[in-house]
Amino acid sequence: MLGLGLGGITVGAFVTRFRKRVNEKFHQGQSISDASTELLEVLSASAVILNPSNVAVRATQGALAMGLLRVRTLRHPELVALVDRARKSVGIESTDGELSTGLRGSSIFVSARATNLGDGNVLLLVEDRTEARRLDETRRDFIANISHELKTPIGAISLLSEAINDAEGDPAMLEKFTKSLRKEAKRLASLVSDVIQLSRYQSVEMQSHVELVDLSAVVEEAVERNAFRAEQKNIKVNFLAPSGITVVGDQEMLTVALKNLIENAIIYSDENDTVGVGLRVSDEVAEIAVTDNGVGLDAEEQNRVFERFYRVDPSRSRETGGTGLGLSIVKHVALSHNGEVRVFSKPGVGSTFTLRLPLADRNIVVSDSDRTNV
Q1: pTM for this structure?
Q2: Which CATH superfamily, name and number, covers 206-374?
Q3: 11-128 has which CATH code?
């Protein structure tokens, strides 16, 4: 049975109790609609009671907000058919499917149950499962994607190990295969690390990890974490980060997000180039911009660049060990801090990624030091 937020009670058990309570009150002289009003109010699901003419005599606010009714009649033929079946049945009738809603006719996915209350009256329960379905699809896509991504380095490692075994008497080939093996192992480790990091960030409860964060420290640490990569390509990372610009959030998450933006700028820049990082305040919003003079992005790539496992240049990603998760992590961190990440780019000119975060209100933020002095 499908649970509908009724404190663990199944639909069948709830309907049995509901029917019993309504009948008790009905026999005491109350109408079906009056007897059911107080019971419907406790439902988290959208609920409607319809009379033998399929006119709604009672409905929850959720049912009205979902747009199930128009002039006290059911809008959707699928639900009308369900109610008609329930009226002729002694059990619970159910259906799952898409319904159009709103002025634009957008679709929602629902799970609906209906049961006969007696004398032709029917109780209809409708639960919006759109978000749950979207999450299930996202989870399936993620599992499919990660399985595909893991196959490549694992397969390469398997082949290279065999090649190393066959090249035992050839020092030059042995060195070449060993170098490639190390590269694929590093790529696999990076992929697993990014997956774990993204999963951890998505499950973390921000409220229990927030603090007052000075973004100048975030910028300096993120630049420092990319020092070795920048040195390998002889790229200079110039940054301007005045102190005193603070936000409320998780300092490590913000540092990782900015580190990923700077790392991408370095990867997609030519050797001996320059990457700029700037921190400023605009309209009560802290903005950290990372600018490069690299290959740039066209309009389609800008729309997709924050998708998981999306790579602008797959060949370059293979060369650098990119996982395609770095910008997904940036977007998630931005959203979890009530902010956003923007991109401005032109092919052949370069890109600017801007992490935008609401400033902390120092007048209402209580720091750890304040608590100890209270």
Answers
A1: 0.51
A2: Histidine kinase-like ATPase, C-terminal domain (3.30.565.10)
A3: 3.30.450.20
